[in-house]
Structures are given as C-alpha cells and as structure tokens.
Specification:
The chain has 14 helices and no strands. By secondary structure, it is mostly helical. The protein is flat. The N and C termini lie far apart (72 Å).
C-alpha cells in the first residue's frame, strides 16, 4: 500500500509538472490557439458526456426530479447544455473583464494572454458547477442559445462577405494579367461546382417516387439566387467582380445541401436515409470534427479581424498614425514612452467564443430536438434544416445589399 501510494503521488506530481510546462509555454502569439484548443476540448467533453452520462444523471435527484423518468435523449441533451453553459460563462466573464483594453500596458492584457493554469482550473470548476444547477436555469439557457446561435451565424455570414471582397480587391489590386486570369479561372470553377452540386441536389433530395415539393422549393430558390447574384454583379451600374458572386453562389448551394442533409433520416425525400440506417462511431467523429473546425475557424477569424474588431486606439482601426520602421534604440525609447496598442478587441474575441458555445450546443443536440435516431446524429432535425436555409437566404440578401448599397447611398462609407 505504501509503495502504491508513493507511485500515485509521483504520477500526480509528474502530471502537474507536465500541465505547468504546457501552460507556461503559451506565448502571446499562441494564446488564441490555446483558446481554440480549450473550446474544442469543451465540444469533445460535451459529446462524450452526451454518450455516457445519461445513466449517471438519471440518479441525480435535482436533475431527475420528475414523477416519470424522461427518455435517455433528454438526459443526453441536458448534459450537452450544461457543459455548453459552463463554457459560455467562462468566455462571457472574460469578455466582461476585457472591456476597454486598448494597450498592452493594461494589466488585463496579461490576463488575456497568461494565467493558463488558473484559467483551466476555473473552466473545469464552472463546467462541474453547471451540473448542480436546477433544470429551470438550463431550460432558460437552451431558449437563449437559439437566439445566440442566430447571432453567431450572422457573424459567420458577415465574415465570409468581408473575406470574399477582400480576396477580390487584393487580386484586382495587382493589376496584372495573371491575376485577372486567376480570377476568371476561380470564378468558372466555382460556377461549375455550383451547377454540378445543384444537379446532385435534385437527384438525391427529390426522388421521383415521392412528392418533395419543399425540397424542390429550397433548391430552386437557391438557384434563382445564384442567377440573381450574377445579374446584379454584371449590371453596368454596379460593375462588380464575378469572383465574389461565384464564391457566394457556391457557399449558398452548400448551405442548401447542408440543410437538406439535416432532414430526419426517416423522411422519404431525404436521399441520404438509405445510407444512414446504422450510424457508426466514425461517422459521428467526422460530423463532430467538421463542426469543431467550422466553429473554431469562424471564432478565430472574427477575433482576428482588424476591420470589425480593432479598438479606436489600434493602428488597424485607422485612428492613429502608422508605426514607421525605426532603429532599435528609437524603437525601445518609443515603447517606453508610449504603450503599444492592442491589435484586436479582446472583449469581442471572447464574445464570439461565447456565441460559438451556444451554436455548438444546438448542433450537438439537433437544436434541442434529439428524438429517436436523430438524437444520435450531429445536427439533424427540422430546426437544423430551417436554420441552414434561412442562413442561406440571409447570405443572399446581405451579398446583394453589399453590392447595391454603395450606389444607393453614395455619400455613406461602406
């Protein structure tokens, strides 16, 4: 017993030293990666608890206080929501703490980039405490998460539009024939992929043996938007570039596919149901990985945007003079005399992760409608379908607005 106790103590000490070494190696540049890793860990924990925690939660009296024990799917959804709530509070608290940080001499700058051992401990404590909350609070968070998820999807759309317009402006700015040819090639590839993808959607999701008017409506509406993008872009008054229109066309077609693929597996018009009778662990892993990557990418890009998120004192915000190259002596003197401004809004960065926590919870629970086989899949159910389709329509409207607004309101800056 004494030897076993010593061995356990040694292992615990080694584990603590390893964690301390890892967190101490997180620098300013890798802090955002560390936040992404913590966020991805929260999704993995939520997914694991969704699969294994139901039998244990059935025995917790303040959770299972019903006269009749709910189905297993209810406890799976509840476990995901509780982990998501803890993750949301962690990033929401950080967002409140970081309000007003404008330069790196602010003490809160070191809190944002350092203290990772304490952050991990606080994150774990928050997630654990969520399992002691009454069901009424979790139900309120579930309802709020649907609105928060909508805000996160809106941020995704804005970031995509900003990205494609910046991409187009950069290539056009080179003013060389090679880059103009590259624009044409990429645009043609996107349009070919869009029309091939649309044909595949008609083949898979509108089988001739069934009346699939709703699916046909979704696909035709998306196709109309694709043609509308090209007409607006090529109009002499707008005189826009075809690259943004082609990329947004492909993205809207993908959203249409994603929505149709999220239809319940027992829906006759879902052509994927024949291949989804038995859902393997590998399929679930791929679905979860795709969710993690898309959410993390959106959060990182939002947190790194210099046009949307830079505070007024930041050079990227355009309020101050650009930092000119200087020799080392002058640079050191400059840093001593004036604090270096932060390059992005720390507060908004954490807000994005908080909203992403809500969004990922909705994905893992099928927008809190995990019933039967749909509860075993990531992001499956009619709410998921409509969220995807409405997001596609919102993307279309925002893109058209971004093209015509500068001409409707020439005196305003867009």
């Amino acid at each position: 017993m004494w030897a076993a106790s010593c061995l356990a103590s040694c292992c615990a000490a080694c584990a603590c030293d390893a964690c301390r070494t890892v967190v101490s190696g997180i620098s300013r540049r890798s802090a955002r990666i560390a936040y992404c890793g913590l966020f991805a860990l929260s999704l993995i924990v939520a997914w694991i608890l969704r699969e294994v925690a139901a039998p244990l939660m059935e025995k917790i009296p303040w959770i299972n206080h019903f006269h009749k024990t709910p189905d297993r799917e209810w406890f799976e959804t509840d476990a995901v929501l509780r982990v998501s709530f803890g993750n949301f509070l962690f990033f929401a608290i950080l967002a409140l703490m970081m309000i007003g940080v404008k330069n790196q001499k602010d003490p809160r700058d070191s809190v944002h980039h350092g203290g990772w051992m304490m952050k991990i401990i606080c994150w774990c404590v928050l997630v654990i405490l969520m399992f002691f909350l009454p069901n009424e609070i979790i139900t309120f968070y579930e309802t709020t998460s649907k609105f928060g998820s909508g805000l996160f999807l809106l941020v995704q759309v804005v970031l995509l539009l900003d990205f494609v317009h910046s991409w187009n402006d950069k290539w056009v700015g080179y003013d060389e024939q090679f880059w103009y040819m590259a624009l044409l090639v990429v645009s043609l590839v996107c349009y070919v992929a869009t029309f091939c993808f649309t044909g595949l959607l008609f083949y898979v999701f509108t089988p001739s043996a069934h009346d699939c008017g709703l699916n046909t409506f979704f696909i035709v509406t998306t196709l109309i938007c694709v043609f509308l993008f090209a007409i607006v872009t090529l109009h002499p008054t707008v005189a826009g570039s075809i690259l943004p229109a082609s990329v947004i066309s492909l993205y809207c077609t993908y959203l249409c596919y994603s929505g149709l693929a999220s239809e319940p597996r027992d829906y006759a018009c879902n052509g994927l149901h024949k291949h989804s009778k038995a859902v393997s662990t590998g399929t679930l892993s791929v679905g979860l990985l795709t969710t993690v990557l898309s959410v993390v990418y959106s959060a990182v890009r939002a947190g790194s945007s210099t046009t949307l998120l830079s505070p007024p004192s930041s050079p990227q915000a355009g309020a101050g003079k650009p930092l000119l190259p200087m020799d080392k002596v002058e640079e050191q003197r400059e840093e001593k005399e004036k604090a270096r401004p932060v390059t992005y809004s720390y507060s908004f960065f954490h807000i994005i992760f908080a909203l992403a926590s809500m969004y990922s919870a909705m994905l893992l629970t099928g927008w809190s409608t995990s019933i039967g086989e749909s509860g075993k899949l990531v992001d499956v159910g009619w709410p998921s379908v409509w969220v995807r389709i409405i997001t596609s329509w919102a993307t279309s409207a925002l893109f058209i607005w971004s093209m015509v607004a500068p001409h409707l309101f020439p005196d305003r800056e867009f």
